[in-house]
Amino acid sequence: MATTADNAGDLATQEKDASTRLDLGASRWVLLACAVVFLIALFLPFAGEASGWQFLAVTDAATQVQATLTELIFVWLGVLGVVVLTPLTLLTRRFAIAAPGWMVTTVALFISLLAIWLRRTSATIAEEYSHGTGIYLAIVAVAVAVFAYIPVVVGRSAQQAEAAARRAASEELDEVAAAQREAGVSTGRENPLLIDDRRARAAERHRRLDE
């Protein structure tokens, strides 16, 4: 009984451990490409003559092209999610890193759309300092990364699925064994053939001999 419980506990532990390790599959190369593309985009114009890294560092060039807060937040979140957390995910294959990477990248995508809209709705800024190719390339990298993260974060690895199947099979065997034991106890109580009545039969024989 204790051994069965220990086995079930071991299988549950194995399943939990497997859930912390990601099965990246083909998403590995897509995420790697997104990180490289975003890095390249940082050296291209984001608005006017200011490049992405100048937005990242909030230099005078970024101030001159009137960088908006949403644009700055997009660059910061994009770097954190795509350039920092994504390579760490590829190296460690840890869910604890991939999940924040996906969330940060998703927020960056929505912020980027807001940043594009705000600059375009400002006629003065848009005419003097329109968005450059760099920011659009960065947005594409972020968008692709968001969808590439989905099967990585939401999906189950082969090891996790195997551990879950073994645990389910073990629990099913435990239930069958428990049912068999219960049936044996019930049968022992009700079946007269299994009742130990040797003393009663011996007493009956002595009574007959005395008669």
Widest sheet: strand ordering: 1-2
How is the quaternary structure best described?
single chain
Return the string of H and E elements.
HHEEHHHHHHHH
Low-confidence stretches: none
CATH topology of the largest domain: Butyryl-CoA Dehydrogenase, subunit A, domain 3
Annotation, overall tally of beta strands = 2
Q: Specify the overall morphology.
A: rod-shaped
CATH class of the largest domain: Mainly Alpha
Helices and strands, with pairings:
Elements: H1 2-19, H2 27-41, E1 45-47, E2 50-51, H3 52-57, H4 60-64, H5 69-92, H6 95-121, H7 123-128, H8 133-154, H9 158-190, H10 198-210
Antiparallel strand pairs: 1-2
Helix pairs in contact: 1-9, 2-5, 2-8, 5-6, 6-8
Would you give an account of this structure?
Keywords: Membrane, Transmembrane, Transmembrane helix. This is Tryptophan-associated transmembrane protein (Trp_oprn_chp). By secondary structure, this protein is mostly helical. It has 2 domains: 138 residues, Butyryl-CoA Dehydrogenase, subunit A, domain 3 (Up-down Bundle); 33 residues, no CATH class. It is built from 10 helices and 2 strands. It has a two-stranded antiparallel ribbon. A hairpin with a 2-residue loop joins strand 1 and strand 2. The longest helix has 33 residues. The radius of gyration is 34 Å and the shape is rod-shaped.
Features:
single chain, 211 residues, mainly alpha, Butyryl-CoA Dehydrogenase, subunit A, domain 3, 2 domains, two-stranded antiparallel sheet, 2% strand, transmembrane, membrane, Tryptophan-associated transmembrane protein (Trp_oprn_chp), transmembrane helix
